[in-house]
Design a protein that fits this description.
alpha/beta, seven-stranded mixed sheet, 17 helices, 2 domains, globular, binds S-adenosylmethionine
């Protein structure tokens, strides 16, 4: 690592904020299919001309805009991932990150105290915050393609009913039922999340929605519904502590039919908890907002074995763009 790399990472918040603010202002949409100068962009987004020019120049330096003869256009990656409504739009995830800016400002407090910077309520107490969170999950998974990859590689032959525990927007379930004719899905999540999921699925996957049952479930407080043939959970164990993850593994075991499959998708870390790097860094976000962190394969496998599961296996998704892996196991 050299000076420029260290300095670039240490100042990375400036680039992050430039992208977040441009997304929030609708600056990328103002350039959809057109080239504008700074005055025209400023008029379109309702901002100061000089300041908008500085933001546009910064976005050009980052590589999201191109500038020629004083006029700006979107680069190909920006057109692909930053125009609202596109199939690989990342903007909802960027807006969620922007909303958590003040939590990052309290990282030092959390490191000193060990406590999160906000109540870890999964954004369930305010409908606008729930929608921002759940749309962010949908946006990230669709933009990067995790759900498509998982549906293509997770063997669900012989599975008639699959539950997605903490399935959020239902992005994975919609891909699963599309990929496997005859498969029925159950989305097990908290009621405020399910209300957002129903809207998202109705907007763009109404065929899949007809084959998915939305079942209000609290995996902390309730027994899980069932029996089902498979339980999938993505980005769930990283939000909980070790004791709750052991309890979730036991609840999944009870909710599965004999021979049933459990599949856990997450950052699955090495023993030192430093690889993959994205998981080690994401654990700081989890410290700020949840009771969890990213866990190793040994830790995850330990919960599953203690619950009674057998045939444990680890499948790593190809990196880049993916940073996660899937741990599978069977109920005997
Ligand atoms: C990080 S999101 C993951 C969403 C989805 N699995 C994905 O990977 O895109 C965590 C999900 O867990 C849900 N959740 C949190 N606590 C829960 C609980 N006690 N019972 C059921 N679901 C819960 C949240 O509503 C949210 O949908």
């Amino acid at each position: 690592m050299d000076f420029s790399t260290i300095a670039g990472i240490a100042g990375g918040h400036a680039e992050a904020r430039a992208i977040q603010v441009a997304t929030s202002l609708g600056l990328f949409e103002s350039l959809s299919g057109t080239a504008l100068d700074e005055a025209a962009i400023a008029r379109a987004v309702g901002c100061d001309r000089r300041a908008t020019g500085l933001l546009a120049n910064a976005l050009t330096a980052i590589g999201l805009l191109a500038k020629s003869s004083g006029r700006y256009t979107l680069t190909a990656p920006a057109a692909r991932h930053l125009l609202a409504g596109g199939p690989e739009y990342l903007g909802d995830m960027i807006l969620f990150d922007a909303a958590l800016w003040s939590e990052w400002g309290r990282l030092e407090d959390s490191i000193r105290s060990g406590a999160p910077a906000r109540t870890p309520d999964f954004f369930q107490s305010d409908p606008a915050a729930t929608a921002r969170f759940i749309r962010a999950m949908d946006s990230l998974v669709r933009a990067r393609g995790d759900a498509r990859w998982t549906a293509a590689h997770l063997d669900l032959s012989g599975v008639r009913t699959i539950a997605d525990l903490g399935g959020g927007p239902g992005t994975y379930l919609a891909e699963f039922v599309d990929r496997w004719p005859g498969l029925r899905g159950e989305l097990w999540d908290l009621q405020p999340t399910l209300e957002v999921a129903r809207r998202i699925l109705a907007e763009r996957a109404s065929g899949a929605l007809a084959r998915i049952e939305l079942r209000p479930t609290d995996y902390r407080a309730d027994r899980l519904p069932g029996p089902v043939d498979a339980i999938f959970m993505a980005n769930i164990i990283h939000s909980e502590d070790e004791a709750m993850n052991q309890a979730i593994a036991a609840k999944c075991f009870s909710a599965l039919a004999p021979g049933g499959l459990v599949a856990i998708k997450d950052h699955i870390m090495d023993r030192d908890l430093v690889e993959p790097p994205a998981g080690a860094i994401f654990s700081l976000f989890l410290l700020l907002t949840t009771r969890g962190r990213d866990y190793s394969f040994d830790e995850t496998a330990g919960w599953l074995r203690t619950a009674g599961f057998v045939d444990l296996a680890l499948t790593e998704l190809p990196h880049p763009p993916y940073t996660s892996a899937i741990v599978t196991a069977r109920k005997p």
